[in-house]
Structures are given as structure tokens and as C-alpha cells.
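Quick one before lunch.
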Amino acid sequence: MPIDLRSDTVTTPTEEMRNAMRDAVVGDDVYGDDPTINELERLAASMVEKEAALFVTSGTQGNQVAVLTHTHRGDEIIAEATSHIVHHETAGLAVIGGVQPRTIQGVNGQMPIDEIVAAIREPDVHNPRTGLICLENTHGDSGGRILPLNYMKDVYEISRAHHLPIHLDGARLFNAAVGLGVQPKEITAYTDSVQFCLSKGLSAPMGSILAGSKEFIDQARKWRKMLGGGTRQAGVVGAAGIVALNDMVSRLPEDHRHAKQLAEGLAQIDGIEINAIEVESNILFFSVAPVGLSSTEFIERLKSYDILANTYGSSQIRFVTHREIETEDIERTIACVKEICANERTHV
Ligand SMILES: Cc1ncc(COP(=O)(O)O)c(C=O)c1O
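Model of the pyridoxal-5'-phosphate complex:
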């Protein structure tokens, strides 16, 4: 088995999940008749202290449904420039939502507060209407950085003052909660809607949750149907989601410890650039520029050691830790990176 550090999405369902999936009591969820999905949605809503929740097929679908529900065609939405919803959802905002992203470059995933305020449109005939503020916590492209509660609160206060909803892309909400040492509901208190994934560090085979007010979820259910996300005996996969929420959150600190250990090990290697202090959750980026290899060349070298990773730009590599990465995998990865760098230096 390779050491697969490409993403926490590669995690496979646990034995408990497979058993729960086999034994799930199911019904037609489009009719609201699937008891397992109904239980999952109740449990999910209570964990983020929202009135209602909706099972969606993926994080992307959850985000897009949220945008459709909050906004109108022609609106502008404020989002961080490298956020998933802007960068990695195949222009769904434009194609599906019919909205225009107004992006702000963040620092560690945080859009500067004054720039958010400045980006909110005045009611002028030339202007689109600002319809939504989107946040992402943890923030993937900044290396899994965690938006602190006081930042979330500041943005929330702005949103109230301007009567704007806030949607949180919390694909890794539980990682954020673990990193902050708080309950997820303490984060989602500063949002109107939240999407979180069951299929990443929590190891379910598929699915995400969109949560918000009852009125919001009633409307979101219609948009989900339009996007083809109304599935029938969905409890077969929803059962794994229940196990994910009940059993898998408590093990996330191990992934964070492994990411830190990996970062600290890499920081010692001549040829690698990383600031281990910045690693706050289960994602880390590092530069291989000093060793004189491109990121693509570097991941090919890693592959020859049976280690899988993703590139980020021409010189950065991304590692993501998860349930299927053990402490010895971390140690082996550090040793292999060291060897790759040492070999490269002897060749130049
Ligand atoms: C921050 C963030 N949001 C949304 C998503 C989308 O989730 P999915 O892959 O389930 O569509 C991802 C996926 O990696 C993500 O990292």
C-alpha cells in the first residue's frame, strides 16, 4: 500500500461504517422517507446548532446549493481569492449560481476586515447587489489554516450590519473545531449556513451536510433536487455518515499531530522550505525550490518510494494527513524526502 498523502478524501470506510451501511433501514429520501438520512440530518443539525440540515452528495454540491439558496442571479458574492468555492468548483458560481465572485486576497485564509467592508456594494444602478459573504474554515489553500473565533465574529458583525448572510465552507469544520479546542457550534454560531464534509478526515465514503435555518433548508432541498442531488435509498451511505459524526471526530487530533510531526521533520531537511509553526491542522505545504526540482519532478521521485502527494504550483508540494497515515508512515516519508534531497545535491 502506498503512503497516500494526496488528500484526506482517500480515506476508506471503517468496518463499523460498512456494517452500518449493510444494516441501514432505508426509504425513499426524496419523499422524506429515509429514516437513516432523517437521523443523520437531525444529528448533523444539532452538532452545528442549526434548525435543519440536508444531506448532499458532495461538498461542492453543498456549497453550490448554499449559493443558489442565499442569492439571486446577478448578485456578487464576497469570497477569499483562493477559496475552494472560487478556485476549485469548476466555475460553478458563474455557471450554476449565476453570481459574480468578488474576491479578496486573504492572509492565512482571512480576508482583511476593512477590505470586506469596502467590497460591499452601494445601491447604485451600475452595481451588482452583494448577496453573500463566504468563509472557509479550515482554509485549504493556505495550508489548512484555521480562522479564529474572534475573526469569525468580526465578519459576522459586519454581515449583520449590512444584512448579508454568511455561508461557511466548513469542508473540514471538525478539524477547525479540534484545532481551536471548541465545539463546532461555537464556530457555526457566526454563520447562517454551513457545509461540512463527511467524506474527508471523517472517512465516510461520500456525502456532505448543508445546515441552516428551517426555511433555508426547505429551499435548499429544492435546489438540491434541481442539481440532481435528490437520491433515493440514500441511507445506505448516510449510515456511514452517522458513524463518521459519532466516532470519527475524536480521532482528528492524531491527524493534526502527524501533520506537525511531518512539518517539523521536513523543516530539518536541507532543500526543503516550510514553516512548521504555520501548520495548524492536517494540511501542509512545502517548497522544493531550494533543491532545484520542480514540484512535478519531486512528486515523481516520491512515487518511486511509494509515496503519493499533490503539487501546488510549480514549486510547492501538499501533504494531507488522515486516518490511514500512521506514525511510521510519517517517519518513512521524512526519511525518503531527506534521501531525495541528498541524492539531488550529489547530482548537481
Ligand atoms: C475547502 C473545501 N471545500 C469544498 C470541497 C469540496 O468537497 P467535495 O470534494 O466533496 O466536492 C473541498 C474538497 O476538497 C474542500 O477542500
